[in-house]
Write a structure and sequence with these properties.
- 76% of the residues lie in helices and 0% in strands.
- The protein contains five helices and no strands.
- α1 packs antiparallel against α2 and α2 crosses α3.
- The protein starts with a helix and ends with a helix.
Length: 88
């Protein structure tokens, strides 16, 4: 049973940037949407939609942090005067 729940969680993780279908989650857990939501809330301590919201927020913060590091690195590269003029 736990491997089916892990399959449902894998689906959520793989689709954080896409629409997440509750029917597909329940199908991967081999149960109905109704039962999956109740089972998930019992095991995780939070409702499914709250879990998805938090995971999306965490994922978005990681993407922003990764991109911010790339921008900072780019800004630290030495530029000649012609390149600086193009940036202004």
């Amino acid at each position: 049973m736990l491997e089916h729940l892990n399959g449902a969680l894998d689906y959520i993780e793989q689709n954080l940037e896409n629409e997440i279908d509750e029917q597909e989650i329940a199908k991967r857990a081999f149960c109905s949407v109704y039962h999956f939501k109740r089972m998930f809330a019992y095991l995780a301590g939070i409702p499914l939609q709250e879990y998805i919201r938090r995971r999306r927020l965490t994922h978005a913060l990681k993407v922003v942090a990764r991109n911010a590091n790339m921008i900072i690195t780019w800004r630290l590269l030495p530029l000649n005067n012609a390149q600086r003029t193009c940036l202004i």
